[in-house]
Design goal:
56% helix, mainly alpha, single chain
């Protein structure tokens, strides 16, 4: 049940949260046009202003510093912060805290996404909490894990980005035991048309059926976060041309795409070729460097013993 229209009367039956601290002074969608100043010093010395404005400004600077937020950076990237009251920042902090995010982690999020500092939690943040709890079905204790893993969830449109991605992923098979978790909610910030669908089409273009692609993605969701040009295509090319691999093995071990081509795949394949040995992708890639060297030594030893017999 949608709660956006019912707030603040609604109550989460399973995961109660604090009543939002509504702030009518500022909203992400109703920003006041401000001059983009370049340093804190410029903000703190404004002509023709009351002296107490400098004190209020100083309070905001100190507040940001206590959150481990770079004041100069956020004032530069979000000029609306200059005119908003300190209460706006405090309401944002209370909202993030109600989602389980500790103050020590807020600085990184707010420094990364300065627009959050002047948002209205009532219209911009609490609906996300409702969406994660009641539509994505993320348990309340895992909400903060989802956000810390992908802070961009806080600034993405539910209607135009998160919900379409959720529907697409469910059609792809992210349901039941494969439902999204705090480890995979980062997929929701991806555009269906520009990011998710092209990767599905790329895999289909290799000859895999839709069912096979679905199974590959469910086994390795990170496939949907990888660049086609910089990751998927070069690894397919190396696998087919240099390793003389069979596409059926990629279907069995789609995690292949998650490993570094230059840092792990190429060096280990070269060592196997040098000694005339072979391993499955899983055996070659899933072990640590030490484990791979031990396995290679054992294989060479067995090969040597076989020759001596």
């Amino acid at each position: 049940m949608a709660i956006i229209e019912l707030w603040p009367q609604f109550l989460f039956s399973q995961y109660p949260i604090p009543k939002p601290y509504k702030n009518l002074n500022i909203n992400l969608r109703n920003r006041v046009s401000c001059q983009n100043l370049t340093s804190i010093a410029q903000f703190s010395h404004q002509p023709n202003t009351l002296s107490d404005r400098g004190l209020i400004f100083r309070e905001k600077v100190l507040y940001l510093e206590k959150l481990n937020v770079n004041p100069e950076k956020v004032f530069r990237e979000n000029p609306n912060l200059r005119t908003c009251p300190l209460g706006t920042l405090e309401s944002v902090e209370r909202c993030l805290s109600s989602m389980g995010i500790h103050r020590s982690a807020m600085g990184r999020i707010l420094d990364m996404l300065p627009e959050l500092l002047t948002c209205d939690p009532h219209s911009d943040l609490y609906p996300l909490l409702d969406f994660l709890l009641n539509e994505v079905r993320i348990p309340y204790p895992d909400v903060q894990k989802s956000i810390l893993r992908c802070p961009r969830l806080l600034v993405c449109s539910i209607e135009h980005r998160l919900r379409p991605a959720l529907l697409f992923l469910r059609e792809l098979g992210f349901v039941g035991p494969h439902s999204l978790t705090c480890q995979t909610t980062l997929l929701l910030v991806s555009s269906v048309e520009d990011t998710l669908l092209p990767k599905i089409e790329f895999l289909r273009g290799l000859g895999f059926t839709r069912v096979e692609v679905s199974n590959m993605v469910l086994r390795s969701p990170s496939l949907l976060t990888l660049s086609i040009a910089n990751n998927l295509a070069p690894k397919v090319d190396f696998f087919l041309k240099e390793m003389k691999g069979d596409l059926a093995e990629l279907k069995r071990f789609p995690q292949y795409f998650s490993f570094s081509l230059e840092g792990r795949i190429k060096p280990r394949h070269a060592m196997l070729v040098k000694h005339g040995l072979s391993l499955s992708l899983q055996q070659m890639l899933k072990v640590s460097d030490g484990g791979f060297e031990s396995r290679l030594f054992e294989m060479r030893l067995r090969a040597l013993e076989g020759k001596q017999r």
